[in-house]
Amino acid sequence: MSLKLDRLHPKMLKWSLLSLMRRRGYLVFVGLLSFSIFMEVGQDLEGAASDYVCPKGDHGEYSGRPHLADGELEFRVIDEETGDEISARLHIKDERGRAVRPPKSKYHGDHLLIDGMFVLRLPAGRYTFLLEKGPEYNYRQGVFVLKNRATDNKTLSLKRIVDMKEEGWYSGDLMVFREEEEVPLAAAAEGVAMSFLLPPQAKKRGRIKKKVKSDAEDVIGRVESILSGNAFTLKGKIVETKEHRLSEFRWKVSEKEEASQDELAQHTDLTRPYSWDLPLLLARGEVDSVQLLGEQLQREKVVTTEKEGRKRDKKKYPGDSGNARWNLAIYFHMLNCGFRIPPSAGSGSGLVENPVGYNRVYVYCGEKFDPAKWMENFREGQVLITNGPLLRPYINGKLPGHIFQVDQGEKLKMEISLELATREPIDYLEIIVNGVVQEEIRIDELQKSQGRLPEVIFEESGWLVVRAVTQSPQSYRYTMTAPYYVEVGGASLCRKESVEFFLNWLDDYERMSKTKVDSERAFWEGLLENAK
After folding, report:
1. CA–CA separation, 72 and 258 (whole Å)
2. pTM for this one?
């Protein structure tokens, strides 16, 4: 492994294992694991200034009357390779470390959105900045100094480290609580192709006594053109009770302009895997995807509690990563019971300060993006989830979600090929088989093996995922593939201990709610009879 600091402008820190072939700023290996870490530090900028620090707020556009301006700095953001203006997210802090929100800016939480160009009007002084455009671009950070009554303009370029669309992968955010008019720019600034918009009033977390069926209103979004491309918005609604929260979305399955109820497909995303009535929802077939990267994983912090849900054992799942690893454990038990439900991700932007797409799901669509195809392949499990690194896997040449069929008595040898782009150091990579970490590979170990990943052999039915975890000090960041499945002799996996895990959960639910759930219990007891 080598550590190299290029002298080019802007400065870029590169860390790579091997150097076989370079492609768009990251290393590519076939049959090997590869990655590069990119970090850019912007030069100090000197320019003009204005006079206003916007008071703290949730999100929106400030249009108050500013004081006498000290000066102006025109900020322009371009793609380093193409030279085209691009939308991006900008964080500015003053000398005291406070977030600065200039007047007339589109801001949310601690950041503002730039639609290619923005004029900063701020008091004279020294400011730090961070400029980002989702995980597919390097970030720029540094210092700029604004002088009294001066005008200036600066252009900052962002370098793309990977183009997921070129490889057929399109990103989505399944939990956006923003106003509809905010979504196109917010999604474009992060390179998000599919935004799943939930009603802003759901932020209030109002409770309802009974489950409410989703209707067909606002089932299909519209395409908006925002510099960097198209952002498709699909509207949905929250179904929330004391025990769980589901997001329901419907979309057209016909080419007709107006679709009837029967022509609308529905997708239900479970936003809290630890919801008390998860065993009931699974028994009823009401879960289409499970949100493993959700609102609790935020850009600069982690929420570690399981409110209104089944709490984790903090001795088994301690620390800031405990909630996320508890969600993973629950999901792995689902897979071990034979459920083939893809993982999902949502930022909770609008409910929390996350930008749109901070937690995101990538779905493989091939050469051409189509929202209906995206939804179809999402449900088929051709999925990656991430809030940091970008992992693209092929196992025996197949995408995630693939079901390998093996004759009884035969073995399946899995050869794993990965491409991994990351802006933060990778702590370790895991190969997880049937919920157990079969291989945990540290970077130094991977260097010694020249980047080769071990083969995995299946003699019985099961599943496999690959996960990479970063060394981020601010939050818990990882990427994971959806499962690959193996059927030996046509049978799927069903583990006795995982079925009992949910039966125990059901027992606790009945005691807590004082409600009998006989039909759901019969489902799980039937699974137990055939489990191994």
Report:
1. 49
2. 0.83
